[in-house]
Every structure is written in structure tokens, then in C-alpha cells.
Write a structure and sequence with these properties.
Two copies of one chain form a homodimer. Chain A is an alpha/beta fold. The first copy, chain A, has two domains: 70 residues, Orthogonal Bundle (Arc Repressor Mutant, subunit A), CATH 1.10.10; 112 residues, 3-Layer(aba) Sandwich (Rossmann fold). The longest helix of chain A has 19 residues. Chain A has a seven-stranded mixed beta sheet with strand order 5-6-4-3-7-8-9, with helices on both faces. A two-stranded antiparallel sheet of chain A has the order 1-2. In chain A, helix 1 packs antiparallel against helix 4 and helix 2 packs across helix 3. The first copy, chain A, is built from nine helices and nine strands. Chains A and B meet through helix 1, helix 5, helix 6, strand 8 and helix 9 of A and helix 1, helix 5, helix 6, strand 8 and helix 9 of B.
Amino acid sequence: MSNRNARLQPSKPTIERLSTYIKCLRAMKKEGILTASSADIAAATGVNAAQFRKDLSYFGEFGTPGRGYDVEQLQAHLANIMGLREKHRVLLVGAGNLGSALAGYPGFKERGFEIVAVFDNDPHKIGTKIGDLEVMDVDTLPKVNATLNADIGIVAVPAAAAQAVVDRLVAGGVKAILNFAPATPQVRSGIVVRNVDLTSELEVLSYYLQH
Amino acid sequence: MSNRNARLQPSKPTIERLSTYIKCLRAMKKEGILTASSADIAAATGVNAAQFRKDLSYFGEFGTPGRGYDVEQLQAHLANIMGLREKHRVLLVGAGNLGSALAGYPGFKERGFEIVAVFDNDPHKIGTKIGDLEVMDVDTLPKVNATLNADIGIVAVPAAAAQAVVDRLVAGGVKAILNFAPATPQVRSGIVVRNVDLTSELEVLSYYLQH
């Protein structure tokens, strides 16, 4: 297997696909599948086999020619690359409908992302509870996170408030931000932001409706 | 420009990237940019220029060699390919926190997706209002949609209820489904389901935290 990409920086789409592969391998493991070929993984994920092998090549050599991949071993290896072997603490800002939904989203904790604090700027929400967490004043975020040391923040506030919330998260030591606000907040280099675009998901469906 | 892919079926990732290109072109148009090279679009979207040109090649020939793409024309062309020139009616099932958040999500209507009805099975929610819409009994969905003729459904219910809701949507004539439940509902051929995986977004952030 070629290893010529091992020194290159993988692209963002490659990283997104790694998450897809991990999910696929996790499901295979659950079904008791021990080994899988790149064709098996391609069929299960919708990514073509050559792309899959190219994506892996950024990170070293995997699998045995003619025998395929050890499902458990590859999953563990990819989880390691993605930084998923340790748990992550997450701050959530925005205690409205979306924030409440995200606080209760079962997939996060299951896969190692624990929301450890919820913040809002609305006096009517501060002090109320979402699940087990009391909503705190967003002004206290940097101080609170000096103790909690969360490195990921989720932004679930209106577009107009997004930049201020992102600045507050960065001031609090957060290094990676998942933004649900329909805005593109700016951050200094060294901080990563992912803007979730739910409308884009509907646009993809629209394509399939007419083809 | 090569047109050798024009007869092949584009992959799902290609369709997802088309939505990204449209978004980028829309932003360029807003900024008054009239033409863009594939390198410009690559820089703005994080997709490499060769991939961009390959994605376009499935749909014909675009742009003028040496002059780049007419931003407005390419956006219109891609919107047409994606079926975005006409508005889409959308049914939402689930009037909990997530459903309420989605019903108020500003990006949907702006980009041509109008939620025209909300359903739930909880007697305490049926008859209440989310925005301008009265929550209806999910049992009435097929009958209600005989009039509304929505072709897209959004599933915002717990995992255990997802399959039943998807079956109801399909019975009501819906052809494309965006599923937020952490489940993978089965549908007959001819119906498209996209399962939104929010944890995957956090996994991508996790990668960048450690690299």
C-alpha cells in the first residue's frame, strides 16, 4: 500500500470521511464482522474504495494485501488519529430550543463528548435547569471554564449574538467551536470553527427528488 | 474542459459539495464578485480546484478557459441542477425542543424550504402552536398531506419512534426525509433518507484539537 501521502496534510473532507469510516467500522464490529476489504467499506459508506485507501494513506500503512483490514484494529487506530480515545468536555452556549435539544442529544455522551456547562444571557433562563445542568450567566464563562477546562464549545444562539459568544468561548480557553448560528464568526489562527448548515442537508435531498 | 463524466452518476459527496459551491457563489455574488476561477472557489470552500472541476464535469461544460466562471450564471446553473429554482414544502414531525428549533430555523425558508405543517403524537402538544403552525396529530399526516403535497419530511423524534414516523411520511407521499433521530430507518427504493449525525461534527473538531 502506498504511503506517499503520509507527510502531507489531509484535507478537511478527508477528516470528515474518517468519522464516517469509524462509524461504519463501529457498526461492523457490533455485527461481529472481524475483517473488511476496502470494497466492503466503500459499499457501506458510499465513498469509493480508491478514495478510502487514499484517505488512510495520509496516516500510515493499514491492512494486509489480499486479507483486508482488521475491523477492530482499524477502528481503534482511526479513533486514535481523531483524538477520540479520551473524553472531551464541551461547553454549550444558548439555552433556547436548540440548546435544550443539543443538551439532551444522546449521541454526544455515548461517543465521548460530555456537555459540562450551559450558558445563556437571558435572566429568565439563568438559574433554570436543562437536564442536570443549571444554566449559568454567559459573562461567567471564562471564569467557570478556568476550572472545567473544556476545549470544545457549541454555539446555539441567534446569528446576531454568535460573534460575541465565540469571542467569549475563546477567552475562556476553548480551542474548537461547533457553530449552529447562521453566521460565520471570525477567530484568530489556532482556533477551529465548524459552521453547521442544516439547509445544505435539505438541498442535497432536493437534488435526489428531481433525479 | 473535459466532459467525460457527463454520463456517469455523481456520487453523494459530489452532490454535497455542489451545495457548498452554491453557498460560496451566493456569498461571492453578494460581495459583487462577477467572475471566479476554480482556484478562487477552491480557496473559499476548502475543496481542491481539481475536485471542483471534476464535480462540475458530471453536469456539462462550464466556464471559459482562462477567464473563469461567471458567478451568477454558475450559481443559477447549479441551483437548477439541485432543484432549487422552485420552492419546496416540508413536513416536520416532532414538536419537542429540536422540532421547535427547526421550525424557527431561519435558513430553511430563506433558501426555499418552507415548513408547512408540524406533527406530534403527544396529546399535550397537539393543538398548541409552534410559530404560526398548529401542531397536528401525526395520525392525520397522510390525509393532511393529500392537500399540502409536501415532498420532504423532517424527523425530529426519539430514536424509538423514528421508523414509525418515516413509514407515516412515506404513506403520506413524502419522497425525501431528513432524519435527526439517532437511528437508521429503512425505506423502500425510490425514497431518500439523510441521517444527520451531529456527533460526527464534534469528532472532526476533536481531530483538529490534537493536530
